[in-house]
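This part of the workshop introduces the protein records we will be handling. A record pairs a protein's sequence with a compact description of its fold. Comparing a sequence with its tokens is the quickest way to learn the format. To make this concrete, we reproduce a full record directly below:
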Amino acid sequence: MRLTLVRHCEVEEKYLGRYNGHIDIGLSKNGYIQAKKLSHELKNENYDAVFCSDLIRAKESLKYFSNLENIIYTDRLREKSWGEDEGKTYDEICDSKNITYESFEQWISALGGESIEDFTKRIDEFFFEFLPNLKYENILIVTHSGVIKTFLSLYDNITLENAFCEKINYGDKKTLYFVQKSNKVILS
């Protein structure tokens, strides 16, 4: 199975550098330019299936694609919910909660919304239980940075902290291949 993972294109300017989570926001002018470029780069691909986060910024990243049919929008590919911290910057969160960053685990635990355990479980189940059972060969997934990083941490044997240190720019894509062995999916 071949997966092409795409981070949605750049969001509206006032939401840049914020913990956006489930906030349903659109793309910036630059985001639309990125979306056009992305559609051009992938125009010759023939995907068996397309899965996309149901949030507007992910949907709008597919706006210029003419070669995609039957896109499946799902909340299973949403970014982690940050609860009352959604839409805030790092500094705003520090000020409102009177906390400072000590470690990745401490920081993630201090923030609101979906627990990191529930988020990781959601990503694990989607990629390593749901997708392999569909028997598709070539899949496009348009989602969020946190989803991609969590997915990569699960089977690249790296910590979430290390995965979240990796930079994934708006509109970036990454292609991976899977091999099914003994009812377990192995990254190859």
Summary: The longest strand covers residues 173-181. The chain is about 35% helix and 20% strand.
